[in-house]
Amino acid sequence: MDILPHGYPFVMIDRIFDITPGKSLSALKNVTINEPFFQGHFPKNPIMPGVLIIEAMAQAGAMLLHASLPDFSEKTLVYFMGMDKVKFRKPVTPGDQLIIKCRFLRQRANVSKMAGVAYVNETVVAEAELMASYGDKND
User: What CATH number matches the domain at 15-136, 2.40.128.10, 3.30.230.10, 3.40.50.720, 3.10.129.10?
Assistant: First the structure.
């Protein structure tokens, strides 16, 4: 909570359980029926919006960047820049535990590209390549 600038209800990471700085990170999102987006997506068939699965991957990637780069401070923010090769494979529903795995693909100056894969019960539900930059909050 001290690293990500997000607040409720937009924090999409509940726990980080494995991290290798400069390489990879694994995180958990518990998907519960009381998530505010389920009121409208969809009331009779609740499915986690794909864009929020991607947001969970982006937040996991921000945590990986934070742990990997020595010049990070409390003034540093990660800015989501883009996504490629996005695929949604299976719906994510209340009660699921979304496991997000991110790994670095490349780093140039203050821009990083990472691969993210989201799983439920060891089944891939979404994947994407994500690009982010980082800089001072005052820039």
Answer: 3.10.129.10
Q: Are 15 and 32 in contact (CB under 8 A)?
A: no
Residues 6 or more apart in contact with residue 130 via CB below 8 angstroms: 54, 57, 58, 61, 80, 82, 83, 102, 113, 114, 115, 116
pLDDT in tens, 90-133: 999 999 999 999 999 998 888 999 999 999 999 999 999 999 99
Q: Does the model's pTM come out above 0.90?
A: yes
* Residue 135: pLDDT band with limits 50, 70, 90: confident
Distance CA 23, CA 67 (A): 10
- Which residue in 114, 115, 109 sits closest to 134, CA to CA? 109
Sketch the domain layout of the chain as residue ranges: 15-136
Is 66 considered catalytic here?
A: no
Tokens 């864009």: give the residue: 51
Which one of 11, 14, 41, 50 is the catalytic residue?
Answer: 41
Q: What is the rounded average pLDDT for all residues in the chain?
A: 92
Collapsed DSSP state (helix, strand, coil) of residue 62: helix
